[in-house]
Automatic annotation (TrEMBL):
It comes from Paractinoplanes toevensis. The keyword Thylakoid does not apply. This is Tyr recombinase domain-containing protein. The lineage of its organism: Bacteria, Bacillati, Actinomycetota, Actinomycetes, Micromonosporales. Gene3D superfamilies: 1.10.150.130, Intergrase catalytic core. Residues 146-330 form the Tyr recombinase domain. GO terms for biological process: DNA integration; DNA recombination. It comes from the Bacteria. The keyword DNA-binding applies. SUPFAM superfamilies: DNA breaking-rejoining enzymes. InterPro entries: DNA_brk_join_enz, Integrase-like_cat_sf, Integrase_catalytic, Integrase_recombinase_N, Tyrosine_recombinase_XerCD. Belongs to the 'phage' integrase family. One of its GO terms (molecular function) is DNA binding.
Length: 344
């Protein structure tokens, strides 16, 4: 193959331009930014972990720990796409086998997401360019349709019966079930709820959920009274977490885990299908969509400001009003709501 020729005329023109600007080629080399040496996984993972939200840390922490265990002393710029694929294969091979598992697709997706988060921060910190990011060179698996679905009223009644008649704190568990059924909120939204987030006059609660989203959601007068009473009885400060144990300590995600294990022990179909609180969200939103249409269900879910991946541009124009959300809630609970335009 012939050696590439150098455009001598272009080189001479560049030199003349630099001379007129008073800049020498050495000045260009000396002034080039120096990239800092990339840290090791053992050093960098704790830095990133300390700067993200608790929710993200729960989602990514396990996979970062695996990366540190495997590559702890290696610099983060010394890992290739093939190395990441090998890590994914190891994680999939040693994952916890669950009844509703899908061959490790979720573990693969979460591993890639965790490493992309880590490498986005590394790119922002100047340790590498986006083109050098190895996590972007590993494709995420295509998501399969969820197996979750709406529960029939009879099954929902069984769940509520077990939650409110067993365990060490049936009042708390019954409140959790009702909160999720009425609002279709996520676990994070329930755990982030504070007494100061209750608008008792209008029967609204402020939900702070994933992605830093905030939304006011209508609740029934009955649920509002129970939330207020719970906060007072269990000593929740106005700016502190509302949902608490009897000893006044804030509940965590573990309460949900224990709740569904207990329900599953008494209702075999719950354990068999791996029913969780997110099924309640599916149940409520399905009912709202069937009875009040897509726009209201979208607003009820807290998706009103999200257009990516939606069904079309029209979705951005058909946002449900608070009155329409209150109408849906009133029909769902059979209770009048201060903001409803119709009476239950």
């Amino acid at each position: 193959m012939a050696e590439p020729t150098v455009d001598q005329a272009g080189v001479q023109a560049a030199r003349l331009l630099l001379e007129r600007m008073g800049i020498s080629p050495n000045d260009l080399v000396a002034g080039a930014p120096v990239r800092p040496e990339a840290p090791t996984f053992a050093d960098y993972v704790p830095v990133v972990a300390a700067s993200i939200s608790p929710g993200l840390l729960r989602a990514y922490g396990t996979y970062w720990d695996r990366a540190v265990k495997r590559w702890g002393e290696r610099r983060i710029d010394q890992v290739s796409a093939s190395d990441i694929r090998t890590l994914i294969a190891d994680i999939k091979a040693n994952r916890v086998q669950r009844r509703n598992g899908r061959g490790g697709r979720s573990a693969e997706e979460h591993t890639i997401a965790a490493l992309r988060c880590l490498y986005r921060r590394a790119t922002a910190d100047g340790f590498m360019s986006e083109l050098e990011n190895p996590a972007l060179k590993v494709a995420k698996p295509k998501r399969l349709p969820t197996t979750r679905r709406a529960l029939p009223d009879s099954r929902l009644a069984e769940i509520n019966e077990v939650a409110t008649s067993s365990g060490d704190d049936p009042a708390l568990d019954g409140l959790l079930i009702r909160l999720h059924v009425e609002t279709a909120c996520r676990r994070g939204g329930a755990l982030a709820l504070r007494p100061m987030d209750l608008d008792a006059e209008q029967c609204l609660i402020l939900l702070r959920e994933k992605g830093g989203t905030f939304r006011w959601q209508p609740v029934s007068p009955t649920l509002m009274r129970h939330l207020q009473a719970h906060a007072v009885e269990r000593g929740a400060a106005q700016s502190g977490q509302l949902l608490r144990y009897r000893n006044r300590q804030p509940i965590t995600y573990r309460r949900y885990d224990h709740l569904w294990v207990r329900i599953g022990a008494r209702l075999p179909w719950v354990a068999a299908q791996q029913i969780s609180v997110h099924w309640l969200r599916h149940t409520t939103l399905t009912w709202v969509e069937r009875n009040f249409g897509y726009a209201v269900a979208r607003g009820y879910a807290g998706h009103a400001e999200t257009t990516s991946g939606d069904v079309g541009a029209t979705a951005g124009y058909v946002r449900a009003s608070m009155n329409e959300l209150a109408d849906a809630l009133s029909a769902l609970t059979g209770e009048p709501h201060p903001l409803a335009s119709v009476r239950a």
